[in-house]
Every structure is written in C-alpha cells, then in structure tokens.
Amino acid sequence: MNGGGDVIGAVTSRGGWLGGDSVRAGSVSASPDRAARTMLPLLVLALAAAAAAQADNQTARPPPPRREQFRVIYEWNAIDFEWPSPETRDEYLNSSRYIPRNVLISGINYYGDSLFLTVPRMLGGVPATLATVPVAQTDTAPRLRPFPSWEANALGDCSALQFVQNVEVDRNGILWILDNGRVGTLTDRPEAKCPPSLVLIDLKTGKNEMQRFPLPPDVVNYNSTYLNDLVVDNRDGDYAYITDNSASDPGLVVFRRRDARAWKVRDKPSMTLAADATYFRINGTSVNLPVNIDGIALGPPLRAADGRVDRTVYYCPLSSFHLYAINTSVLQNESLATGDVRRHVADLGLKPSQTDGMKMDSAGVLFYGLIGNATIAEWNTSTEFHSGQRTIARDPNYIQWVDRFTFDDHGNVYVVVNRLYNFVKNQVSLDEVNYRILKSHTGSRSYVHAEDLPAAPGAAAPTAAVAAMALLPAALALLLM
C-alpha cells in the first residue's frame, strides 16, 4: 500500500459499486433523503480513511539502510608522519623523539574530508599527539599529518597539545580535544607537563585557533587524572561529559562551556573496576588491566514524564561487564551531581565481554566493541539491553581490541582497532599489522546530529490521524439513522 492513494481508490470503488445501477434506478428516485443519508456517512468514512492513511505516510519510518560488512581501509605496522623534511625525521629518530614502536592510534573522529586520529603519549618518542589522515583513500598506510601543526604538538609547551586521548566534533563544527597534560603514563615516571585541559578549535573557520580551558585541581588531580573519552551535548550552554579513569579518583567530569564551569560526578559501584573483569585474553595473549570508568556514549533527546527534554549518558569501566546509565538532567545539576547520585544510576545489565570504546548514532543505536570476543556489537536503546544486543561483526584476525568509533556524513561508521594488549606489554612487532581502521556502511549519523524534540504534547494542532478518528462517531451515527 502506498498511502492515501490506494485507500482512497479502494473506498471510492467500493462506494460506486454499493450505489450501483440499483441505487440510481430505484432508491435515489424513490427516496432522495434516504439516499443522501446513505451516501453521507460513506463520504465521511472515505475522508477518515484518507486522513488516517496520510498520517501513516507522514509518520512511517524509512526502510532500514543497506548494511555492508566491515572492511579494512587503512592499516599500519608502524605509524609515520608527514615530516617537514627527511632531515627532520632523521633528527627525531636519532634523538629518540620519534620511536616508531611507541606510537599508537587510539581515538578517531570525522570532519569534512579528514579523519582525526589521536596518538596519546603513553611512552616516549611520540612526536605528535593529534593528527589527520584523508577520508578518501589514496594509500593503505598514509602518513599522519600533525594537527593543527607541528608547533601545536610541541612537547613541554603548555600552549600546545601534550597528551590527547580522544576528541569529538560537535554539530557546530567545534573540535573538542581532551588534553591530559601528563605524559609517559605507561612509564615508571609519568610527568605532568601541563594542566589537564579541554581545547576547542572551530573547524569551520579554517584558522585552527585553539581555545584552552584548564580544568581546576579540585575537580581533577593533575598527577593522577586520566581523561579518557567524552561526549558533547549542544543544549543549554554546551556540555561535555568526560570519563576520568583515574586510579585514585574515578568519575564523570561535567564541563559547561557557557561559563567554563566544571565539576565531577562520583559513583563508586558503577565507575570503578570489577575485580572479576580485569583479566583480558585476546588471540592467546593475556593481560591484566585494572581500569576504571572508560567508555561513554550519549543518547538522543527524550521527553521525560514531566514534559522536559532529557538525554541519557551511557558508560562503563573498561574492567567491567556491566553497562550503566544516568540522565543528563542529573549531571547538569551541580548540587545534585556532586552529592550522592547512587539512586540516579541505572545498571542496564551484562555484556558478553569488556568494552573500551562505544559510540551512539543519532537514532539511539549504540555501537561498541566486545574485546574478549573479537566482536563489534550494537544495541538499539529503545529495546531491553539484556535481549537487544546484537553482534554485527566478529573476526579474531582483524578485530583485535576495538578502541573508538566515529561516523561520517554519508552513513558510514569507522572503527579503530589497535591491539592495545600488545602495546601495554611492550610486545609490538613491527613485522605485523598493529593498527587498522575499519569501515562499514550502516546508514548511521553521529549522535551529535540527533534532532531536538518538538514542543510538548498538546501544543501542536491535532494530527491527521486524530482528526480522522474524530470523524468516525459522526459517520457511524449517520449509518444507524
């Protein structure tokens, strides 16, 4: 059925057949009033059916998008960069400012014709901590271009980027950068070079000017914080929700851009590691990683029972099998968020394995990795978590530690796979592929493009379906006359 046309055609045909020659030859000429009473309700019913069909047409969801299998678009044995000159590269190599086996890709995000890649300085010898590669493939292992520039990645310069774990691009084209400020986090002597900060760049201007917001020491400890991932909510003053998997003080950092205010939300049961989930085994390699709150995602706007618009933040410790949720209305209320939030946290249930990165699309579908299962999974948040999880890719050779996801503007999802378990054990072999970017067409867009909800129910005019239903009693009454 293609909407109102078919319904109107069917009703019209049936009405003509019911009137037929017998009506014209007998009933109409013998009793005009009775014929009118017969035809009027049929006309009303026809209008009602047409209106209902039109409403169905307007509210019907488009068919599900065409899905593709994930495929490798980029892969590297070791990460190299676009250097100012070959001599500069040699200089960095000879002075150990560039150690290829110490350079790992972690985060990914999309804007325009570039994929932004984060390169955290967990070890020495990482010359740049934020870089780009082209979206359009020209090489299977492209060299990374430091972003915004080589100078903006200078180690020890607090006006430059020091340790970028993850980035996000909001719906206004603003790049939000998590700069931990502390380097060498996998060494015996991590060094706090600069204050942990949020750095914003307006990508639309092309000027790439950095606006820095240092986070206060009463919110994050400069010597122990580890700002891991973030989501951005472009409502009511632009909020960022950031996971801090600090070993001593884990929590969710809330940053409000409007007044550069930040605070921290703590909930020990949901934000600290679970002792039974610190052990990982991937392709015969075992590693113990006791890591607190890590992955984070932001759901689309929803209308609460009181009529207000709210959103849900989903999160999990790396060392956990559980997924948790808390509403943004709680996180944005500083007096509430800095108190006991236990009653506001929902434990959604168990996953088959631990998760590092996750990402929500604009329709409320969560994409996430299951590390121990070599799996990429998804969950439509409109369904129950325990029964709604779905595996969309599994491959022990190519899906070895899913770290982060991003979406482009053409319905594609990208995934960083980085074999982190080898990196933290210092077992990276430059004779093997260590880092991959996978891509699949899913028809999805990032959660930052989720549509704002319309006015509260009751403020708008009645829909066509409601109007159609209102006509039915009158039609039935006329038929019974």
Give short descriptive properties of this protein:
481 residues; alpha+beta; four-stranded antiparallel β-sheet; 9 helices; 30 strands; 21% helix; disordered N terminus; disordered C terminus
Model description:
With 481 residues, this protein is an alpha+beta fold. The chain is built from nine helices and 30 strands. The strands form nine sheets. It has a four-stranded antiparallel beta sheet with strand order 1-30-29-28, with no helix packed on it. It has a four-stranded antiparallel beta sheet with strand order 2-3-4-5, with no helix packed on it. Strands 6-7-10-11 form a four-stranded antiparallel beta sheet, with no helix packed on it. α1 (4-30) packs antiparallel against α2. The chain is globular. This is Yellow-x. Belongs to the major royal jelly protein family. Keywords: Membrane, Secreted, Signal, Transmembrane, Transmembrane helix.
Topology readout:
Layout: H1 4-30, H2 32-59, E1 71-76, H3 86-94, E2 108-111, E3 114-118, E4 130-134, E5 145-146, E6 164-169, E7 174-179, E8 182-183, E9 191-192, E10 197-202, E11 210-214, E12 227-233, E13 239-244, E14 251-256, E15 261-265, H4 268-271, E16 279-282, E17 285-288, E18 293-298, E19 302-303, E20 309-310, E21 312-317, E22 322-327, H5 328-331, H6 334-337, E23 346-350, E24 358-360, E25 365-370, E26 375-380, H7 385-388, E27 389-394, E28 402-407, E29 412-417, H8 420-424, E30 435-441, H9 464-480
Antiparallel strand pairs: 1-30, 2-3, 3-4, 4-5, 6-7, 7-10, 8-9, 10-11, 12-13, 13-14, 14-15, 16-17, 18-21, 19-20, 21-22, 22-23, 24-25, 25-26, 26-27, 28-29, 29-30
